[in-house]
Specification:
This protein is 19% helix and 27% strand. It is an alpha/beta fold and 528 residues long. Strand 5 (61-62) and strand 6 (67-72) form a beta hairpin. Helix 7 (387-398) packs parallel to helix 8. The longest helix has 16 residues, at 211-226. The radius of gyration is 24 Å and the shape is globular.
């Protein structure tokens, strides 16, 4: 796989023939003998001007050995120039030019955006649609800290990409879990092998970053980018025993600027203020953080706040975030009054509410946790579910027009078995393959069209019906201009079976007898 250019190059600013592919990070390095007590606190930025005259203001960062860097990802093909700004004479007024050439990585499509015509869904800068199939892998960066070339990280990313995952949720740093405290075994990475700052979690020096940690983290984000996997970065996390910099301090400003300076040039970055952000009670503080993030990020990456329902529902983040991420577990809200006895309560209704409140993408990125191969008691956390329950929950969410994220007990937190292949992987592959074969961005929840189960549809054109427990049902079709081909789909196995053709009116449908009462999907129209 092609190595990302920024990891190869320490370029002279006098090199005029430099070519940088569109949307690919590249480092410009500036050496200086600076008499400063703390080089991490030296201010450096650069203004980059593209062929269309638009400018990017790029924060720089100290990267050791008397070298400061500005990392850029050009957004348009053509001639670019940049000039640095710093209070330090040797770093001020440095210039460089380069040519942005066509991106050659077929996995890279520019930054992820919210669709303008279909605002509940995502689209890349080049117009490629994106069906978010998430995977929470909080401690991914802790792997291979003692191995060059990221052999384990690359194998695990290839493995999950093979099963359709294109979106990884990852901490900027996490220290340990309460439920599995300390390094209990060789596969327990909490506390991790490297610390994010100098010092340690008990006595940190938040004014100085641990360069070995962040250079390793660079490689992990680059490996994700090479594969076209989005990196949803949880910038803070309040329940993983991290001794964070003091709020609103210079050290905290350094940390936020550091993350933007090193990672905003990666097109696959999505910012999230914090995992379980409701743990931070000061809403004004969170708003100020998001405003500062918006000001710092020259590219305008998508931004969200995880699991902060009260503030999100009040509209506190409407002008500061681009989409909604939540944590909701299946049966927190029952469905006793529903006409559908086989509906999984809670998740579906939550997504419908969040979509109705604002026209933006919504995702439940933490619902069920697949257990280990030994069954539901094979787990690293207090709860674990069978893969059949996990996949039913994710279908429940998707049928409301929401996006999902997968958890596996041995990759979700600090106990990691990266090359496991849990049974849920195959189900997730079927899940992603099914939705990507539909015009999912056109579909809207339409549960009133079915007698039991969930329905999402483009009326007259395409319908998807999900039943958590197969049983006969009716589907109302109106506005079809021709007969629509129908097909049964088994969410556990990926098996498909012809269901004939349907025309306008009320269709009575009976699932395949040999499928028993397992969950099933009916796909009508579209591209079955």
């Amino acid at each position: 796989m092609k190595t990302v250019s920024f990891l190869l190059s320490l370029v002279s600013t006098s090199l005029l023939a430099l070519e940088v592919p569109q949307w690919q990070p590249h480092d410009f390095s500036f050496a200086a003998k600076v008499d400063a007590p703390n080089p991490f606190m030296v201010a450096l930025s650069a203004t980059a001007t593209g062929p269309d005259g638009k400018t990017l203001t790029l924060p720089g960062f100290f990267d050791g050995d008397g070298t400061w860097k500005v990392r850029i990802s050009p957004t348009a093909e053509g001639e670019w120039s940049l000039v640095t700004k710093s209070d330090i004479k040797e770093l001020d007024g440095q210039t460089a030019t380069f040519t942005c050439v066509k991106n050659t990585n077929p996995n890279v499509h520019g930054l992820l955006r919210v669709g303008q015509t279909h605002p509940h869904h995502f689209i890349f800068e080049d117009g490629t649609r994106f069906f978010l199939q998430g995977y929470e892998y909080d401690w991914l960066w802790a792997l291979d800290t003692d191995k060059p070339g990221l052999p384990t990280v690359k194998k695990t990313l290839d493995l999950i990409a093979k099963h359709g995952f294109n979106y990884v949720i990852i901490n900027s740093y996490a220290h340990d879990t309460k439920w599995c405290a300390g390094n209990t075994a060789a596969d327990d990475y909490g506390p991790p092998p490297m610390y994010a700052w100098e010092g340690n979690n008990e006595s940190p020096d938040h004014s100085r970053m641990n360069l070995a940690f962040w250079k390793h983290y660079d490689q992990v984000i680059a490996a994700l980018n090479e594969r076209g996997i989005q990196a949803h970065m949880l910038m803070k996390v309040y329940n993983k025993q991290v001794n964070w910099p003091e709020r609103r301090s210079d050290e905290e400003k350094l940390f936020l600027t550091w993350l933007v300076a090193r990672y905003a040039a990666f097109p696959n970055i999505v910012w999230d203020f914090s995992k379980e952000a409701h743990n931070e009670k000061d809403v004004a503080y969170k708003q100020d953080w998001l405003k500062h993030l918006r000001d710092l990020d020259p590219y305008g990456h998508l931004t969200t706040v995880h699991d902060d329902d009260k503030a999100n529902d009040s509209g506190a983040y409407d002008d500061l975030t681009d989409f909604r991420t939540d944590q909701h577990h299946g049966n927190e809200k029952g469905d006793a009054t529903s006409k559908n006895s086989n509906r999984v309560g809670g998740n579906h209704e939550k997504i419908l509410f969040q979509r109705a409140r604002r026209a933006w993408p919504v995702a439940n990125v933490e619902s069920d946790y697949e257990c280990g191969p030994g069954g539901v008691n094979d787990k690293t956390f207090g709860g674990a579910q069978a893969p059949e329950q996990m996949i039913a929950t994710l279908w429940d969410i998707a049928m409301a027009g929401g996006y999902t994220a997968y958890y596996y007990t041995y990759t979700a937190w600090d106990v990691i078995r990266p090359l496991d292949v849990p049974r849920g992987y195959a189900m997730m592959k079927h899940f992603g393959d099914f939705w990507r074969a539909t015009d999912y961005w056109m579909l809207e929840p339409a549960d009133n069209l079915v007698s039991t189960g969930w329905c999402i549809a483009t009326p007259g054109s395409e319908y998807v019906v999900f039943q958590n427990k197969a049983q006969p049902f009716t589907l109302e079709i109106v506005g079809a201009k021709a007969a629509l081909k129908a097909e049964w789909f088994h969410p556990h196995t990926g098996q498909r079976s012809d269901a004939g053709t349907l025309t306008n009116g009320t269709a009575s449908l009976t699932p395949p007898a040999d499928w028993g009462d397992a969950p099933l999907v009916l796909h009508v129209g579209g591209n079955p």
